[in-house]
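debug: dumping io for the single-chain case to check the tokenizer round-trip. Nothing else runs in this session.
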Amino acid sequence: MREELKDAADFGWNIAEPGFDWQRLLANKDREIDRLNGVYERVLVNAGVSIFHEKALVRGKNEVLVGNRTVTAKHILVATGSWPQLPDIRGRELAITSNEAFHLERLPARALVVGGGYIAVEFASIFNGLGVATTLAYRGARLLRGFDGELGTRLGEEMARKGVTVALNCNPVRLTKDGTAIQVELNNNTRQSFDVVMFATGRKPNTAGLGLEAAGVKLAADGAVVVDNYSKSSVDSIHAIGDVTNRLNLTPVATAEGMALAKTLFGGTPTPVDHENVPTAVFAHPNLATVGLSEEKARERHGKVDIYKTAFRSLKHSMGGSEEKIFMKLVVDAASQKVVGAHMLGPDAGEIIQGIAIAVKLGATKAQFDATIGIHPTAAEEFVTMREKSA
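debug: decoded output
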């Protein structure tokens, strides 16, 4: 919102210096969550679902202890998600995670976000966007490990351009209380003080204390429920979906796994979930989205690949002083000429890649991309106008 107000001035609008009300945001957020929870609960109750707001413990292949009551069922589904993990360093109890970020009593003046994954870059962008002096510290050499390498590098550059202090190869080793602030000792032997330290250093499947192992369910080393292609665990009557299985941890994927399981168990149609070519977005500033293989993974799988990419300022930003650049990249299997990966960094990347994902899922070729006429003037048209190979 702050950037939109700033851009408006370039188009002739007289915009007063914007102010921000943290408490109003929290109140509106809580009201919306309550509304959504109410909608979901009514849908379930109207469908005949019994809801227990109590702790559950799996007692066997067909039994769950809910509070003091034993519930029996032909099938049990575990969908308990994941939970943020804190690193094993001194003073970690002084830090928060994404769970607490939107429950802070006041907006901090200085924030340190630790991590390099999607949660870390999103929250660093949020704090920075709200006017907080924000540092993003990551132990690796580039952000977003597992994504296309250029995306992580370019995202770090754009976030720095927007005011985030991006500290790579950097990690906290100790936190101590410093009055009302938190002093952070880093692995480069420097110390800095912050009002809030947030760790976004990974999440763990939420299976502790559920009684799954005692019921015979096999768990992975990280606690994830081990399942087959049909989401069935090592116990035939117990299934699991979503982040608790640590397969592809995205909300729409969990939804798809649930729908596939319903068809398998009750629809008479055994349905595996296809985890190939799942589009995803990272809602950092700027937005980032991707579908298919990164350049690195494509080279591993296909050997020779053709790379097409472009970086440019949008027409919107060329009207003013913003130096932000949009980046787009197509990864093409050289042998079949199929587009096996599409990546974008820039405004509305998620909206654009959602459409591109259909083409990638259907196995469209680069020639078919080229034969598609673009919509001008849009950023999205660049996906069908890239002609020169960069590799």
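debug: round-trip ok. The chain has three domains: 54-82+205-266, 92-201, 280-384.
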